[in-house]
Amino acid sequence: MRRSLPSRRMPRHHLMPHRPSHRAHGAAPRPMRTSDLVLALLGVVLLGGLALTAAFALTAAP
């Protein structure tokens, strides 16, 4: 009867994350993606809204 799983270990490729490529010190940085800018702006807006809500809740008369 055959085994359903082989007894020897199968090699597992690509377990380590890829290293970033080494650049020269004078190389220009990669441009920002639009999605990164949108996510950063969304985070700032959400934190600002949370701060305004907290300030309003603290200053509201009971």
Give the arrangement of secondary structure elements.
Blueprint: H1 34-59
Q: Could you walk me through the main structural features you see in this protein, from its secondary elements to its overall organization?
A:
With about 60 residues, the protein is an all-alpha fold. The chain has one helix and no strands. The longest helix has 26 residues, at about 35-60.
Could you write a compact summary of the structure shown?
With 62 residues, the chain is mainly alpha-helical. Helix content is 42%, strand content 0%.
Which short descriptors sum up this protein?
1 helix; 62 residues; mainly alpha
Strand content: under 5%
Gross morphology is: flat
H/E element order: H
Our Rg estimate from Cα atoms comes to 26 Å
What percent of the residues sit in helical stretches (DSSP H or I)?
Answer: 40-55%
Distance between the termini: 78 Å
Number of helices: 1
Structural class label:
mainly alpha
**Assembly state:** single chain
Mean pLDDT: 79
> What is the strand tally?
0
Task: Characterize the largest beta sheet: strand count, sense, and whether it forms a barrel.
Answer: none
Q: Low-confidence parts, pLDDT < 50 over ≥5 residues?
A: none
